[in-house]
């Protein structure tokens, strides 16, 4: 006898909502905790992405405020590896270069800076003395927290302008009472306090004096160590190619160029790749880290990475056409350079991420 076919069970449309919400209505605490966990997860993702975006926006805003047409010229290294010296005429020659809107030459002096003459020798707090051109403030679009900047008149007298960190370290908040500091066994009157300069952090730890006073009191010969250049925005790359010869016509390879856009090597200087192929150690770009927060030159990292891929045509053929091979002469130096710069870059990136999180 055939088994009668049972009718299929059909869920009616009006029963969908009550059945779907049965678990939520019967286990209210579990439903509440599940919803809370989802909300916390979404909020955490939004917060992480927001921190990253805000940090990126702050960096771009800082660059926009200072401008992308700021270049810096610094003394590099000689062929023997010694520190090069820029000519006395470097500042004037750079100012006369086509496409340069403004420039200011500075020089670092090996002199101590103390709050008074009772401070023990050596306790300078990491401060330095910098000979400064009166045009530095306008060239960097800097601002003063108090007082005034050096001009042609003040530069001839024992007057000093302090960077933001230098003033904080020395305990000077304003210049109303005309405070004095002890610079190289001479008393100098503080006439101004500089606000933090984002793309020139070395100025924050500097005590800036005029060139005539430095010549009269400390025997300054007039050789600059760093020149800040503000170029026409549309001619920035063109000006960058001219500054080497303008700064040091005899030895342009002893000049190092940097800027707010990127770090560059001047024409006429041996590149990192050429040095590695020749079997000579590749030195990092000669940019002095003169203060806290000084930026790492990215050109050294990129050059070390590219140098590891260099090879001659016969070596590529020997490898069977499977990509470039590193020449035996270049491999040890390339690996050391790439490893060293990779470690430095990794530490810098970790530090920047930690700063972003804490901020």
Largest sheet: 11 strands, mixed
Low-confidence spans: pLDDT under 50, at least 5 residues?
Answer: 262-340, 353-359
| Total of DSSP H or I helical runs spanning 4+ residues | 12
Helix content: 25-40%
**On the 0-100 scale, what is the average pLDDT?**
76
C-alpha end-to-end distance: 82 Å
Structural class from helices and strands? Answer: alpha+beta
Looking at the structure, what is the overall shape?
elongated
Range of strand content: 15-25%
Strands, count = 11
Global Rg: 31 Å
Q: How many separate domains make up the residues?
A: 3
Give the topology string: H per helix, E per strand: HHHEHEEEHEEHEEEHEHEHHHH
Provide key terms for this protein:
359 residues, disordered C terminus, 12 helices, elongated, alpha+beta, 11-stranded mixed sheet
